[in-house]
Amino acid sequence: MNKKWGLSAAALLLSAAMILPGCANKEQAPKEALKSAAVKATTLKSYEMKSKVVINNLTIDAPANGESDATTAQVLSMLKNAEVTVDGVYQADPMQTEMTLVLNLKGDMTMSFNIPMVMTAEKMYIKVPSIPFLPLPKTVVGKFVELDLKELAEKQGTEFNPASMDTQKVQKLSNEVLNTLLGEYDDQKYFSDIKPKDAALPEGVEAKQVVQFKITNDNVKEALTIFVNNALPKIIDIVGKPEYKEMLNIKDTDLAKVKEELQSSKSRAEFDKDLADLGTYLTINQFHMNTAINKDDFPVYQDLLMDIKVNDPDKGENLSVSLNASNQYSKINEKQTFTIGIPKGENVITMDQLEKEFGSTGTTY
Fold it and tell me: Which segment of the chain is annotated as a signal peptide (predicted)?
């Protein structure tokens, strides 16, 4: 199912690209509103955010395969109705981000645990959680593991690239990519305005415009064709600009190889064949993404609804996925309050100390 999965994933990636923050004046057409979004994104200097993913359904039907089937069934049971939330605070200058990831498993094995994280321009701190099925040394649980990004780069034989942490440059890149991508799609076929009162916005979220990007069984083939033939080559050229190559640590030879493979007759033939067969293995029940814009032209809420089925008739394998995802932004460009702060003193351990603690207990990881 590799090629089929790849093409289906491309369809999802295409839609996910639209989740970048958006803004617009009410009189703007939906696509123009989202193109303005990329410009507005470059002005985000700080914000609070809340993200959530809920897995409504995740099932795999495949021929019996003994022990692997039992493992798969156990994993699926754990993920049924699982929720992942991320609450965070970000500021650009000085660069500081903190977030808390919460995983709630609600299947046969109910459990919940939190993972607080902090990031600065050169360091990352991850708090070691207490996980019921993973016995960790008591001496490290509750401590923040300090990761020095410069030291990690040196250990890997590379040089630390501060440009990779340049959020302003990331926003600029996102701006160019999104404008290029959106420019290839027809406003009437893929974009629409949703009345805010009909958009199921959470309490406290006020929006003057809600823009929806939607992919259906009727337009998915055209959307993928446009993405591969028109948008992707232009996006590769954007990524190839000197300032972005440095930030992403990409070589000219790598970009040239990707472009050559994309344009080769063999790749084109394989893409055309998979695209022609798309309807036999991909079914989109629902797939849309909404972006809500407030009176100050900032995005305050985004949500994705995905309900798809991917199947391989030749192998008798079927995958069904249904999930909801959302992002909510507040306190945009205001002074932020960091509740975790930058960990210090006895609350911090290094990677070397962590490895020694695991070694002293005979634990492997």
Answer: 1-24
Residue 91 in tokens: 């500021």
- The backbone torsions φ and ψ at residue 104, rounded to the nearest 5 degrees and listed phi first, read -115, 115
Q: How many CB atoms lie within 10 A of CB 274?
A: 18
| Percentage, residues of the chain above pLDDT 70 | 85
Quick: pLDDT tens for 339-364.
999 999 999 999 888 888 877 655 55
Task: Name beta bridge partners: 214.
Answer: 288
Q: How many CB atoms lie within 10 A of CB 116?
A: 20
CA 183 from centre of chain: 22
Quick check: 128 and 117 in contact, CB under 8 A?
A: no
State the chain's maximal CA–CA distance in angstroms.
65
CA dihedral 243, 247, 252, 255 (to 10 degrees): -110
| Predicted TM-score (pTM) of this structure | 0.79
Residue 136 per-residue DSSP state: -
Sheet holding 282-293, edge to edge: 191-194, 209-214, 282-293, 299-312, 317-330, 46-61, 83-91, 96-105, 111-120, 123-127, 144-148, 348-350
Please check whether residue 324 is in contact with residue 53, taking contact to mean a CB–CB distance below 8 angstroms: yes
Contacts of 311 (CB under 8 A, 6+ apart): 280, 281, 283, 317, 318, 319
Residue of 304, 278, 178 whose CA lies nearest to 222: 278
